[in-house]
Specification:
The protein has 1 helix and 5 strands. It is an alpha+beta fold. Strands 1, 2, 3, 4 and 5 form a 5-stranded antiparallel β-sheet that branches. β3 and β4 form a beta hairpin. It is elongated, with a radius of gyration of 21 Å.
Length: about 140
Amino acid sequence: MKRAVIVVAMLLAVGCATRGGLRNGDSLKTAALRQIGSEQVAWLSHNTAKLPSGMDSVVSLRSMRAYIDDVNAATGTVTTTYWYTGTFSTPDGQKDGTLTVQRRLHFQHDDSGTWTQTGQTEEIARNSQWSTARSTS
């Protein structure tokens, strides 16, 4: 009987710890989604002060979408991939296409569990695909 109580207590402790970890991961993912949303608002409102660094090659943006690749509540980091479609300034002139950027966002949480972004966003990778002909629109 004593052994059964110990096993149940251990399972309960692991379950509670896991549930808290999932809750932290969910709230961190929500904070990252808020950051993605605020970047979309910055693009729509042409607020260049709120755009991530390194995006000055964008001449005109037709669409932006983002995907959360990884959430790590233990380190407070979220890895995201962004796809920007539009016209870009390149060394060979303006080109239409898609720019893909992978970033790591850094967060920390306060005593109430609210996650806030800290510091600059870290760019991990960048890739571009250009169309063969520049559109006239």
